[in-house]
Amino acid sequence: MNALQKIFQLFCRTNNDFKADLVLSCGNACRVAHYLHKYKLRKFSSPIDWMMSYSLEAVNNMFEEDFAYFFKDYEQMYEHNNMRVVKDKRNNMVAMHDFVMQKSIEEQYPHFIEQKTKRFKRLKKELLKARSVIFLCNRSENLQNFKDFLIRM
Fold this sequence. Notes:
Layout: H1 3-14, E1 22-25, H2 31-38, E2 51-52, H3 56-64, E3 74-80, E4 83-88, E5 94-100, H4 105-129, E6 133-136, H5 143-152
Parallel strand pairs: 1-6
Antiparallel strand pairs: 2-5, 3-4, 4-5
């Protein structure tokens, strides 16, 4: 059992009565989304649940730009576990789980962007409805970066 899993178990065991309309992962990798799902804290998939290597500022920009530039300019970085690892050049988000090797990125891109756009619209709708939101992450950023992120959200 890794440290993050222990923290999730402890959190779920000791905070049965926490009140939040929404619990969201803000990365910076898919591990948090995995545990939110495992402990039944995730209501739906967000467009960044399974992304890697992005900053909190990139998440803020995604909302401020209304998702308009998400993966518009991208490049394949390398291959891993029979998947193409693709990076958004604008925000440095890395998609590790979306592009199979058997098809070109261009063949898969329409489905990818349609799926992520649908998830973004739902996320935005749910955030606007929510009275209280918990953002969980696995990051090594300083406290000021988190404060800035929350203020901009």
